[in-house]
Amino acid sequence: MALTADTVVRLLIAERAKILAYIGALVRDRAMAEDVFQEVSMLAVQRCGEIGDETHLAGWLRRTARFKALRAEEQRRRRAARLADDVMDLLEPEWQAFDPLPARDLVAALEGCLQRLTPNARALVELKYVEGLEGARIAERLDQQLRSIYTALSRIHRALGDCIRRRFFAEAQTGDA
Fold it and tell me: 101-177 maps to which CATH number?
């Protein structure tokens, strides 16, 4: 049975953060990710009759977002840093693992894990993801070596990933998930 437009809209709203994260990994530009999300959302509503169920929708959204992101980059005529297609293919099972988890739970886990970071680490995250600064601009602003910034961001990403996995593993073990 195909999904209704109302169901697609409800799921798009509920899973917005997850979908935007996926698109953001492709385009590395917040404004472009929003544009691609809106385009994909409109297509999903228009084609809801072709989408079998919620599980099918998650994969359909990723595939469509991937193609729309590639097209947006071509139109931008600027070589943006993005993950190679073979890397995206390898990451697909990792993204699928998050399909059953509500986006609000992932966002809540991320927020909790961000609070556990040191003030300096939170400041780096804010410069990178809230202000949208490139590594070189962060290094310049903080008067640090670029390599130090990238090393710190890498450690922060790893710590946040580990924290989120621990939170969901602990919830699964206690039955709170």
Answer: 1.10.10.10
